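Form 12-C: Joint structure prediction
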Amino acid sequence: MDKRKAVILSIFIGPPIVVVTIFFVIPVILTVLLAFTDMHITLEWRFIGLENFYKMLSYDPRVSIVVFNTAIYVPAALAITIGLGLFLAISSIYIGERKGIILRTIWFLPNIIPPVVYIFLWRWFFDPTRYGFLNAVLSLLNEDPRPWLTEYALPIIIVVNALIGASVCMVVFTSAIKSIPRDYLIAAQVDGASYVQMIRYIILPLIKWPLMFMTAWHIPAHLNAYVYTLLLTNGGPYYRSEVWALYSYHRAFSNFEYGYGAAISAVLIILNAIAILITWKVFGLKRMMEIQGGGV
Amino acid sequence: MNFGKILLYIILMLISTPIVVMVVFLLVASFSERLSYGLIPTRLTLDKWSFLWGPIPWGLKREYIWPVLLNTLLYAGGSTLVRILLVTLAGYAISRISFRGRTFVLAFQMIGRVVPGAGLLVGMYFTLYYLNLLFTIPGVILIRTAMGIPMALWIMKGFFDSIPWDLEWAAMVDGCTRLQLWRKIFIPLVKPGIAAVAVFAFMEAWEDFIYVYVLLPGETKVLSVLIQRLIATEVIDYPLLAAMSLFYTIPPLLFYLITQKYLVQVTLTGGVKR
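Section 2 - Result
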């Protein structure tokens, strides 16, 4: 590379690289470094080796609950995300163009509404008093109001988080299905295949890659997601809906145990790195880009 | 119509009910005095919109929405400007100049989408603290820009890719330098791309919650944090919150409804492909 080219390049891609390095790469490094300190409210750096990880594994009583919740939350949210996304995509095509657009518009809404408003709406839906939707329906049936968010905290946050993912999957799968050549489906129809057979033998095999990619993508996504949970149940009641990523947030910013919070985050970073590497190996960079390009 | 199809419609209607009901609630509640059965207004009124011309009828302190809106606009506007500047420069280089590490820059956008942004808050908090940028709007802007760059760059590159090389060759033959080329030829041609990136950056910042919540002090409220504070109380004033939420949702909603088709395409393909 000659000198002139280097100068030009540094003008063009220098600024973003600097910004990404300082404000993204360094936070990652700092998080990992902090994981080996007992950084707290006094903001003093004191390295304590693996103490935080030891605490996590042996004597922090909340960790087992949090791990248990996360172990239920991630697979369940993933299943709903992919399953519902696929179901919506296939049905929206099956029921015809105009009705399909209405269905997709409704289901795209969770992605448009800002997170705080989305959560406000769910908060109303599950309000423990008669002012909430579910309890209003119950009161029509002469039943007493129930504290939904306390009774079913974990299932509710699973659904609330998964709907956002399903919304994304619906869009990706719809465009993948639409890019299947019409001839295949017409040929199958002529041969007398039922719609279920067409889904099973034509649509699913042909959207295999987007399907797998969305699955691979949503595993870390659900693992990392905690904002909706923070807003809706705040992990409660008594840690019953606390997931791993939220636990890190709570340790760091509610209890000011920055070091311990960072250690919990560091576990997340490692899990993410593994997920990315596996995805990379299975799909290859080029195919990942292509799938993101929305086609097959 | 056969049995299976009817069943499908029933299932679709059932699972879509919560979303539809919520949207109806948002619209109805904001113009209601109170609600019975959670959804039926006792009387229609514009009272709950009084936060637009008076103090917010909540809490003991007299608070107004306009300073909060100004903060939100500063944050969203700043994010937009910084991101556009950075990715229009870099998008050109990645699309047109071949150099080592180009694939890596592109691969980075994959990583950027998966990495736990909100899980890095501890690291971000301390980075800003040591740079004396903690609890300032520029600090949050830079953090969010760094995370948004990969995706924005990907979109921008697509737009640069779609511009024919002939134009560039002609300009170069006429003695244009790279920077002139960028400013005079490319910037006017990638305006749709700039618009797309701008809109995304603005909406992302507008809807942002966790970053402004942690990295900005309590006094510098933005709309999302204000609404969160109002939700996190024992007794929620639903009509008031619905009005404020609607006010806060109108920009993204309008914008998505108008450009829905075009945008989905941009998100998925990263620019207009030929």
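Section 3 - Comments
The radius of gyration of chain A is 23 Å. Chain A has a mean pLDDT of 87.
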